[in-house]
Design brief:
GO terms for molecular function: hydrolase activity, hydrolyzing O-glycosyl compounds. Belongs to the glycosyl hydrolase 26 family. InterPro entries: CBM60_xylan-bd, GH, GH26_dom. The chain is of the alpha+beta class and 630 residues long. It has 4 domains: 304 residues, Glycosidases (TIM Barrel, Alpha-Beta Barrel); 51 residues, no CATH class; 129 residues, Lipoxygenase-1 (Sandwich); 108 residues, Lipoxygenase-1 (Sandwich), CATH 2.60.60. The chain is built from 12 helices and 35 strands. The longest helix is centred in the first third of the chain and has 25 residues. The radius of gyration is 25 Å and the shape is globular. About 5% of the residues have low confidence.
Length: 630
């Protein structure tokens, strides 16, 4: 039976939760649920932003409001916030944008940046993506980098300082931090050569983000637009064919696809903007040059109110985007879909949006699908079951599914400025998005990544690619370590390596490959909670000994959600006791203020030990007996 998988981890924009307005909160959660229902999978990333219309002194208060609402929302909990950070303010009395860039670079706003990272962490969001200076190449953006060389230099200096402060704050608060450099596609940008002038350097970019929409503003007179289909897509045609209206031109998918690829094209040139345009393909090519992954931070099929066409239901853009990414040859961290009327008519998942073809296209090309190679991972931890050392770090949430085989990666890093990032491919096909490890190799720690898929029972090729190498001198070197790889609970020989630069190592696992001594045991625990004034926490015990620090559960029991925690280690042969300890019970005299923990399942090496629903209403430990024969 094939697994359900996503071609890329999903992000979504459906507005913002509002903890102070139950009606708005319900609308947000309903919209989020509607998107997940259509797509056949939950999004991993949730889009939010700091309000650029308020003074920078109020940005922390704004972040606290968003984080509080996100923590209270059952559909936001457990997701990764992608936080848009403006670099200037339009509020009365605010400094000019260029002066704010200078202030950022001078460190004037460091405490605000640090406090915002902590605010999201305190709300339970220990993985954060920050989109710094969003759409800086558009003159309507609050982060517009300016038109002069001096202004652009100030913008770059500010961005570099913000990157450094965010990562330092993340290190202090134990946050898994990704900072994205995030321009927008445009068919006429006032910033020339944005990928060169405004790129701050590889040491200050974790992921290259791009906002790409299907809005239609083709070059040429609205009453005479070059038809790329009838003219055979030949530049300088001796007998050019024109359409007499934008509606007529947009009714042909060939014209749409050509425009999306070459947004500044005309009859005479693929780029009639004098070199100022920025397309998705430009960003893909630049990502290849820099060796960075990309993320589609925002995308939508079209704002028909603004572009003037009669294209109300547009599946062509969605299919074009899927085809472009499939053939891009770069790692895609996630695809963030705008399913909201905020900023334009981009909603599609609700029947009332009247976009059945577009909705079907999003579900078909970016939603959950059946595949012979499906990837999963949930919050995972590493634990040495027979020793005192353990590592309880968690990874990014991706898509959950069942499958025939499990792949367990034990990873660690040398930290410098940011956590080591890597991708995984099995038999030449990428599994999931970008993963980060925060376990320090020098401390002997390791972090487990559990992936599942319908791979071969025979030999499989696993490729680990280190994608964000950095070096700043002695003791300032980011490296990636593959400590071991297990396939279906068996650790294989030769599956350890140190990767010191942006490169890939390949490892063979499965039937016909030599096993390492001491196979790994994989323990998976599925949990949920009743949240009250914070999330439930648990500790894992092996034979009565605590082998993790407290782990946070964010999946709500009342929403029928569950959260998987996977642990790996070598159990000695015989009978063992597994304990799940609830460690932070709270009851504040009402059912709505009662924090509880629920055990929804437990399995060892793929075999169910417990399936059902065991509740822990007070601090205490539920125990289960397992048998191993290693």
């Amino acid at each position: 039976m094939a697994s359900s998988y996503l071609p890329y981890p999903l992000g979504v924009s459906v507005g913002n939760p509002n903890v102070s307005d139950s009606s708005e909160e319900a609308n947000f959660d309903n919209a989020n649920s509607g998107f997940a229902s259509l797509m056949g999978a939950q999004p991993t990333y949730m889009n939010t932003a700091i309000d650029s219309t308020v003074l920078v002194s109020d940005w922390l208060k704004d972040a606290q409001w968003f984080a509080e609402g996100a923590a209270a929302s059952p559909t936001f909990q457990g997701k990764i916030p992608t936080i848009g950070l403006p670099m200037s303010s339009s509020a009365a009395g605010a400094p000019t944008p260029d002066q704010m860039y200078k202030n950022f670079a001078a460190g004037d706003y460091d405490s605000i940046l640090q406090s915002m990272v902590k605010t999201w962490a305190d709300a339970g969001f220990m993985t954060q993506d920050w989109r710094v200076g969003v759409e800086m190449n558009l003159d309507v953006s609050p982060s517009f980098a300016g038109s002069t060389a001096a202004e652009q230099a100030d913008w770059v200096a500010a961005y570099r300082h913000i990157y450094t402060v965010l990562h330092a704050a993340a290190q202090t608060d134990g946050v898994n931090m990704t900072v994205l450099w995030n321009p927008s596609t445009d068919n006429y940008s006032d910033v020339n050569n944005v990928t060169q002038t405004l790129y701050p350097g590889n040491d200050y970019v974790d992921t290259i983000g791009i906002d790409v929409y299907g809005d239609l503003f083709p070059y040429g007179s609205s009453s005479q637009i070059y038809d790329w289909d009838k003219s055979g897509q030949v530049l300088n045609s001796a007998n050019p064919v024109y359409d007499t209206s934008l509606d007529q031109w947009a009714s042909d998918p060939v014209n749409l696809e050509h425009y999306y690829t070459y947004p500044a094209s005309s009859q005479y040139s693929l780029d009639d903007s004098g070199g100022s345009a920025l397309s998705l393909q430009d960003i893909i090519n630049f990502a290849k040059e820099t060796g960075k992954p990309i993320a589609i931070c925002e995308t939508g099929a079209g704002n028909t109110l603004a572009d003037g066409s009669d294209l109300n239901d547009n599946p062509t853009f969605v299919q074009w985007l899927a085809s472009t990414l499939e053939n891009a040859g770069v790692t895609v961290q996630y695809v963030g879909v705008w399913d909201s009327n905020e900023g334009g008519n981009y909603s599609f998942s609700d029947v009332s949006d009247n976009k059945p073809q577009e909705a079907a296209a999003w579900a078909k090309y970016f939603g959950g699908q059946d595949s012979s190679s499906a990837a999963t991972t949930s919050d995972t931890s590493s634990v040495a079951a027979t020793t005192d050392t353990s590592s309880a770090a968690t990874t990014d949430n991706v898509v959950s599914s069942s499958s025939e085989h499990t792949l367990t990666l034990q990873m660690s890093e040398d930290y410098y400025q940011a956590d080591a990032a890597f991708t995984v491919a099995v038999n030449g096909k990428q599994v999931g998005g970008v993963y980060h490890t925060s376990a320090l190799h020098s401390s002997g720690d390791g972090e487990t990544f559990l992936l599942t898929g319908n791979w071969s029972s025979g030999t499989n090729d696993v490729e680990i690619s280190f994608i964000n190498d950095a070096y700043g001198g002695d003791d300032q070197d980011r490296n990636l370590y593959v400590d071991s790889i297990a396939y279906d609970g068996v650790t294989y020989a030769g599956t350890n390596a140190a990767i010191y630069g942006d490169s890939s190592d390949n490892f063979l696992v499965g039937s016909g490959v030599a096993r390492a001594s001491g196979p790994a045991d994989n323990l998976t625990v599925n949990l949920s909670e009743d949240a009250a004034q914070g999330n439930a926490e648990f500790v894992l015990y092996i034979d009565g000994k605590a082998v993790t620090t407290p782990e946070v559960v964010t999946a709500l029991h009342e929403a029928n959600a569950t959260q998987g925690f996977s642990f790996s280690g070598n159990f000695a042969s015989g009978t063992h006791t597994i304990g799940i300890g609830f460690v932070n019970d709270l009851y504040d005299r009402s059912a709505s203020e009662d924090r509880n923990l629920y055990i929804n399942g437990l399995s060892l090496n793929g075999t169910d030990v417990f399936s059902g629903n065991q509740a822990l209403y007070g601090d205490g430990t539920a125990t289960f007996t397992v048998h191993t024969s290693n």
